[in-house]
Protein: F-box domain-containing protein
Amino acid sequence: MNKIDFNENDKIAILDIISYQPHDRHRACITLIEPSLDVEFESPTASLGNFRVLPCEIFDWVIKHSTMHAVSSLRAVNRRMRLLVDTSLPYKGIISNAPHVRATLERTGVAPHFTVEEVFWILTHGACRVCGDLGLYLWIPDLERCCYNCLREEPDLMPMSERDARAAYGLTARQMGQLPVMVSLPGNYKVSTTSRRKTSKFVSETRARQLGCAVHGGDDGLSKYIASSNTKAKAAYDKRLAKRSRPMSHDSHGRVNNTVDSIERYLVSVYLPYLDLESYTSHTGQACVGCRIAVSRARSLPYNDLTALIRRCGKVYTKEGLLNHFKECAAAQDLWHTKQVHRVVSDRVH
Structure:
């Protein structure tokens, strides 16, 4: 591939030609029809009561270390309290850049488990927890950021149903209350817009296993339970697990993985932009048109090459990141050169 050079004036033109926002992928996850929990309100008239004696720094500290649910309850005290909470950092950053995420955490029932500080940290750190690429999805059960490629197939990002977690690790309903058990929301999911009307409860399998270890006295105790348990619930779970393992399939990394693109992955995820604190810019993600064209034209590529191309097509970038990608993407460069030729011809005609 020939090295391509471009100047500052070309950057905007290049981005206009080779970038697009993959809204179909964003809508593949939880999408709220009414993303805000608020209604318009008049200017506040009530007082803050005993809260009025708190310095702003102390109030901000309290908000930062409170759960998202506790803060939502505090906002409901009166209009003046809501105004004060909404101007508190870092809560202001969340509702300004990702108000739908606050509403999603409330409606899925996990807001009592995550603090404002934890949510803000995820909002301001853009790397996928699995591969390190820019990730624009929040995997709710662990409050972790991930990218689209990893969301589709990473084994650790396949949620576990509450029923399976209780049966697999010998947990009671009371013990499960220690975990963020999220309730799925009715809607359309996946790029293929699969409709899901019933609700289900999901947890992180990693967290469920950790709780199982704590309940049964460590790894050895949990292993003994798994090997010796003969409850009806455990037997039913083992039967479901065996059924899911057939037929055997593999993911793009060659791993045995029967959960690639399972709808459950999207039921527990929501689109999350990345807030860069240095520039205080919210990055919504730019995908490469060149990569999309290359996938559509791929005919007889070897399987591994085609898989790599599809994964590259699934990536998103910041604007600067996409310009760096442009230097390596032959399809994007061809698109740029074609547009340049058309422009030169058009200028000559006129």
Notes: Residues 1-22+285-343 form one domain. The first strand starts at residue 19 and ends at 20. The mean pLDDT is 90. DSSP finds 19 helices and twelve strands in the chain.
